[in-house]
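Quick log. Single chain, no ligands specified.
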Amino acid sequence: MDIEELLPQEQGAASGNGNSAKKVSPLVSLEKDLELYSDSVKEIAVEIIAEGISSYPVFVAHQHTVSIGELILNKDELNTNWTIQASTVEEFVEKGIIKPERKEEFLKHYKKPEEFMCVFVIVPEGANFIYYPYVNRKG
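-> predicted structure:
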């Protein structure tokens, strides 16, 4: 499965007319939302591991509609910019996003799920994995 298959089939009419040079990165709003979502995402990651579903939770961050994972935080309901869906490395392999022969290599770089959320960020330009530390709210 290609990443394009996860995205809605509507192709934007944005043609390169040079006006987008000063466009703010969507990752600015993503960081703000991940900070807000931190406790909820960590709780779900712990649940995924504790229930034996997977040792490798992956959270999908998107602003459209995607066909992977289960919806856990809806941007429309929460009045935020990003929707988060919960998935696993196993589902990513099953859907062909992570090639089976690359799974071991991916897992070597997978950070501790108790400390970092593994986020698959989908934007119109493409998608990539990031690791975002959980917000420490002690104090």
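Residues 1 and 96 are 5 Å apart (CA to CA).
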